[in-house]
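#dry-run=false #mode=assembly
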Amino acid sequence: MAKYLLLKHYRGAPAAVNDVPMDQWTPEEISAHIRYMQEFAARLEKTGEFVDGQALAPEGTWVRYDGEGRPPVTDGPFAETKDLIAGWMVIDVDSYDRALELAGELSAAPGAGGKPIHEWLELRPFMAEPPTITD
Amino acid sequence: MDEALLRGLTPSVLTVLVRRGADFAAAEDAVQDALVEALRVWPADPPHDPKGWLVTVAWRKFLDATRSDAARRRREERAEEEPGPGPAPAVDDTLQLYFLCAHPSLTPSSAVALTLRAVGGLTTRQIAQAYLVPEATMAQRISRAKRTVSGVRFDQPGDVATVLRVLYLVFNEGYSGDVDLAAEAIRLTRRLAAAIDHPEVRGLLALMLLHHARRDGRRGPDGALVPLAEQDRSRWDTALIAEGVAVLQAALARDRLGEYQAQAAVAALHADAPTAEETDWVQIVEWYDELVRLTDSPVVRLNRAVAVGEADGPRAGLAALAALDPSLPRHTAAAAYLHERDGDPATAARLYAEAARKASNLAEQDYLTRQAARLNARLRHGPGSP
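#status=ok
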């Protein structure tokens, strides 16, 4: 039992095979893509492997502490930021292989021409609790 | 309200329903509903006969669900004929529940969830909180598990080994929530040991007791991991250790050694040492040799290499480690430890930092980073500093 984060990037991932920007798709292709994502999440709920999924707005703000009594400094968004996260899904699965299998499925979401995007997704394991028996 | 009492009654209430002819999945749902109601009602209005109360309420829930199912079926065009109730199971029912919930057709996470609910009497919400997943997800996992075992006859003999693996997982995955899963695993293993006479069941119980006994010593006041050698042994629970050793000795006397007994023997030798320096590492290496023979597990070989380092010196440990796959979990951490003992703090510091990057949990990562930082500070300021 292990939790994994599936990260989807706006920018920063290697180029997908079917790499056409979404605003160039037909409306039907966009609907098909969204439906695929929803059905994927619903299927994971049914198998008892879904933990969470969220999408993020493309633009955000950089914030940092600026000393006692001062409001935090803000900056950005920076157009040149290389790595831009679009959203995530958290899964709770029995094995790394199962996590790979699910990430592969998610990457097959249809894009332009109704063909799979073959998008690169980032798979990151969660830090677990330490096991009790180690010696 | 005594939740442990309530949970302890669950398997027998469930088997009463199954014996009356309810199928397992429906009976289990009904018992869960009764349990949730008991948690709501009992604090203000405790029943005189808790088991009788649970059986009555669960049976009513079962009948209600069956009636609404039947009504739904009547609306359908061609209802399939329901199989009649099977023969009443003759063997120990609680044992059969363990077998069913840990059936080999289930994935480990499903078996764990089903065992905690049907045998452990935990609610879906408690299990979901313990494993940090949404309640809906856990509910789906459990109903899917019940569908998977729906064709399994309740009176079929099962495999003790799969049950032990499930209980080991519950104990060892240190998730936390309102429910103390380690204590729950011990309770369920005790109950299993009462239902079946099997040296490995006792071996696992001893292993759990001996590790549970050290629990308070494993974390410092700030929550940081404290390694075995540095633990304050006065914080170990001597009563649990005594019980664990007694359970283990009775199991070993049967002369049917298995991996849990051998692991418990290692734990007993640690528990038995008044100080870390007095640990009998030679005997521990011998037990690891047995474990290698029994399991041929690379993780066991890694632990053996560390024990060899203690018994025969760090060079011998490093030699044993060199024979193993460096990608094994904790391989780098073990190498770091042995290099420091071998008087090479620079290599040790580098390896501790590398091990920290590979750690699969935060507590270990923090511990390993601290080790690297301690050695790096010493290297910067010369050997006189702490």
